[in-house]
Design brief:
By secondary structure, the chain is α/β, with parallel strands linked by helices. The chain has helices at residues 15-26, 33-46, 51-57, 82-91, 95-109, 121-125, 139-152, 159-175, 197-210; strands spanning 4-8, 29-32, 60-62, 68-70, 73-74, 114-118, 131-136, 188-191.
Amino acid sequence: MGKVIAVDGPAGAGKSTVSKIVANKLGYTYIDTGAMYRAVGLKYSETCEDLIDVVEKIDIELDDKARVFVDGQDVTAKIRTPEISKLASDVSKFGFVRKKLTELQRKMAERGSVIMDGRDIGTQVLPNADLKIFLTASLEERARRRFEELKAKEQIVNFDAIKTEIALRDKQDSEREIAPLKQADDAILIDSTHLTIDEVVAQILSLCSTH
């Protein structure tokens, strides 16, 4: 059985991009927990039901191509908007949401050979992970990356609005009462502000060989 790798960090740090590449190179399963919270936020926004009912009934699946399905429908593109990003942060404040998704995430990790990214993987979801990474970057750089990502998808975006939204997300994630975003005591910090994707991937692969 391969290692269990936890990657945490703020919005726009590159967790998903890097984790997908590392998973591919190692032949591991990549689990995007942020996408699961986005999926809940999307479903909640599209229904008139109470959030607790949405969480009880929702069916979330992630395939090996990093696509996200909610109740059988591919919502990969729909969950990547700034509005859904904020909703994901909002719904993650509720204990019953985190409890349900944490249970699903731990079950996914039981088989090993997994790299999982999110906000509280090393501190709450997988505290016994073999390797914990805390990936960050400056606010300016994270906003720039998100701006370029959305622009490439031909979405109408404003840099200052994205920067403000990410700063708000940082505040919400770090100050929430339940499982706030923070670096685990035994996590290794990687600041990607001045690093390329390949350089970050190389660092993580090197750490995998020594942990």
